[in-house]
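User: We ran a pulldown and think these components assemble together. Before we commit to crystallization trials, I'd like a predicted model of the whole complex to look at. Sequences follow.
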Amino acid sequence: MNSFRALLFRDMRLATRAGGSAMLALAFFAAVAALVPLGVGSDLKLLGRIAGGVLWVAAILAALLSLDRIFQADYEDGSLDLIALSPLSLEASAAAKIAAHWFTTGLPLTLLSPVLGLLFNLPEQGYVALIASLALGTPAASAIGAIGAGLTLAVRRGGVILPLIVLPLLAPAVIFGAGAVLSALDGLANGALWLVAAFSLAAVLLAPFAAAAAVRLNLAS
Amino acid sequence: MIFEFANPKRFMQLSGALLPWFAGATIILLGVGLYLGLFVAPPDYQQGDTVRIMFIHVPAAWVAMMAYGLMAVASLFSLVWRHPLADVAAKTAAPLGALFTALALVTGSLWGKPMWGTYWQWDGRLTSFLILLFLYLGYIALWNAIEDEVRAGRAAAILALVGVVNLPIIKFSVDWWTTLHQGESIFRPDGPTISAVFLWPLFLMAFGYTALFMTLWMIRIRTEILERRARTLMLGH
Amino acid sequence: MGAFLHMGGYGAYIWPAYGASVLGIGAAIFLTLSAYRRAKARLAALEKPRA
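Assistant: Here's a predicted model for the assembly, 509 residues in total across the polymer chains.
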C-alpha cells in the first residue's frame, strides 16, 4: 500500500510542476471550448444544446494530450524498469499511474467544466449532469488511455497513433456522458449517469491488466 | 487440432490443397447470388429496386464483423498459447476486415440515400461500423508502428482483445444513443421479415463473401510465410 | 437493358454501390495475388543455388 501511494504522489507531483501536464490539459480544454463558438456561431440556444457534447469531446482530447507521457518519461530515463522490478506489481503500478493521471487531468477538467458551461449558455438543468458525467467518465479516459500509452511505448512518434487507438474505445464514454447532459436538458431519466459510471468502473478495473501487459511486453526487449 | 497447423510447412500444404475449393466456391456462390439478386429477385414492394443493395451491403457487414472476431481469436491464441502462426493470421485479417467495413459503409450510405434522403444518417448500424473501421485502422497502424515483428504482434494482440471486449459495449452505447435522438423515423433497411425470393440471393452472397474472405486470407497467410522464409534466408546469406 | 440500368429510378444508387464493391474486392484480389507472386518469386530467387 505504501509503494502504491508513493508512486501515486510522485506521479502527481511530476504532473503538477510548472510545465507539467495538469496545466496543459486545462489550457487545452479551455482553448478548444473557446474555439468552438468561433466556428459554430454565437447562437446561444444552439451553444446551450451542444455544450455537453463539445465539452465532453474537449475534455477527452485534453486528457489524451498528456497520456503518452504516462509511461514514456519513466521509460526514457529508466525509472520504468525500476518500477517494474519493485515489490509493487506492475498492474498496481499501472493503477497508481492511472489514478495520478486522473487526479491531475480528469479532475481539474471536471472542476473547470461548469465555468466553460457558462460560456456555452448551458441551461441550468445541465450543470449537475455535466459535472457528474465528467467526474464519473474521465477515469475511463485515463484508464483506456493508459492501455494505449503502454502499447505505443517504444514507438517512434507513438503519440501520433495513440489517439487513433484510444478514441474509438472511448466512444461509449462520450456517448453516455454527453447523453447524460442532453437527457438532463430534455428532462429524461434514462440512467445515462449509471451507464457512464459502469463503463468507467469496468475500464478502471480491467485497464491496469492490459496496460501492465503492454508495458511488460515493451520492457522485455 | 489447431496446433497441427502451427507448423508453417503443414499450413502451406493444407492451404494449398484447400485453396482451389475455396476459390471455386467463391466464384459459384457469388455468381449465382448475383444472378438471383440482379435478375431474378423482383423489386421490393416498399424499397423498390434498392433492395438489391442489401445483397452486397449485409454480406460485407457480416464479413467485417466476422473478420474482427477471427482477429480476436487469433490474438488470443497468440498471447495465451503462443501459437506461431496466430500473429500472422491476425495481421493478415485486418486489412481485409477494414476493406469490408468500408464497403459496408459505402453501400449502406448509398442504400440509405433514396430511403432517408441523406447520404449519411447517424443510425446505430452505420455509426457502429464507422467506429469499427477506426478500430481496424488503429490496429493496422499499431502493427506498422512497431518495428520488431514479434513485439508488434503481441501489442496488436492486446489491442485486438481490448477492442473485442469493447465492441458489444460500443454497439450497445450507439443503439442507446439512437433511441435518444429518435425524432425522425429511422428507416431500418433490413426491417420486417424478408421473403424467400430475397433470402436466397442474400445467403448465397453472404456465403460467397465469406468464401472470398477465407480465400484471400489464406493466400495472405501463405504470402507472409513465404516472406518470412525469404527473410531468414537473407539473414543466412 | 435500359430498364435494367434504370432500376426503377434507383440506378444512380444501385450501380455505384455495386461498382464500389467490385472495385474494392477487385483491388483486394489483385493486391493479394500480386503480393503472393512477388513473395514466391523472391523466395525462389533466394533458394536458387548461387551461381
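Residues 113 and 119 of chain B are 5 Å apart (CA to CA). That may be worth checking against your pulldown data before setting up trials.

User: Thanks, that helps.
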